[in-house]
Amino acid sequence: MTSMPDVSLSADDARRIALRAQGFLGAPDRRAGVRGVLRHLGSVQLDTISVLARSHELIPYARLGAVGRKKVEDAYWTAASDGAPPARPNSFEYWSHAACILPVEEWPLFAFRRRAYRGRPHWNHQLADGAYDQVIKQLKAEGPLTATELGGAKNKGEWWDWSDSKIAVERALMYGEVVCTERRSWKRVYDLAERAVPDALLHDDLDDAECLRRLVRQSGEALGVGTRADIADYHRLRSEQFDAVVEDSGLVPVEVEGWGKPAWADPAALASVPRGRHRTTLLSPFDSLIWERARTERIFGFTHRLEAYVPKPKRVYGYFAMPLLAGGKLLGRVDPAREGSTLVARHASLDTAKAVEPMAAALVEAAGWVGCTNVRVEKVTPVELRAPLMAAVKTAVKALTA
Length: 402
Known about the structure:
alpha+beta; five-stranded mixed β-sheet
């Protein structure tokens, strides 16, 4: 039975704790860089959509500023050597909140999920006899390979009509016999876990309860403070899994003004008052700060929905509307696009006139990061803020090029 909270937080306290925990309040740890962001967050979501950049690039950018895009990829995927061959990857891809990049140190924590996958069928794909063993044999002989190099990812049917080698290697990935250690032209590169994962981590056999306990603790630390749904959703744990381990996780029960639900916090987050400079930036819709819609509404009073999969005539804010974070609040959103060397704000929606200057600054910084030299503003809501936003963008561009 969960103990009653003896710590009460105001809604503003909780918001600032969440911002600091996610890396948006206080000086960024530039020395630790992209790898530090990954280790701190514990999970960075991947997605096929690329507008300004892919989401896994936008995550460190939002926290660190205009770090080079090649540096981002290298930080995720370039192998690190401890002096003894072979060099090991810094991260691996696996199913967490969704398909995510995870720090390699978290490999043992997902043993519970790998065991669960072995115990149930998936995808309704039938696998030909011998196909699984053949893929393992080929990887062992030839080293890291894509599905195409393993014999082709698809048959000649629809996109879900995977080849036997693709079914086999994805099954091996879920079981943990194979690891995805990088993306090459957005294709997964597979290697044997025994070759890619350091021995100390590969053979760290945690039982399910310990995996869950550590994941709940890590999620609470990454969020700062959250409800059961918030914390469980971080790595897609079930409520009953959370309930079974939260008392032993090290998180402490707290009461948050206006939340109306039990909450837990990282004790380190409660040890000091969150202070420092707020980051002004555009957020990927897949950023862990705003993953859970109910949490985003509760903390920021901001309703956000990805409309990429909504029919175009029904979109309100645009295909890939990116929320604007400024002063620790979500003040609007913009649907960006790139046309040559121009970043186009197809639809900027501002909640208040106070969002004009931050939106202009965020657009110009993002443009420079992706190699654009100009920013064009199209639709603005409300319309009376279009002229002020255009003027602010013009001023920000001049300041950048002066």
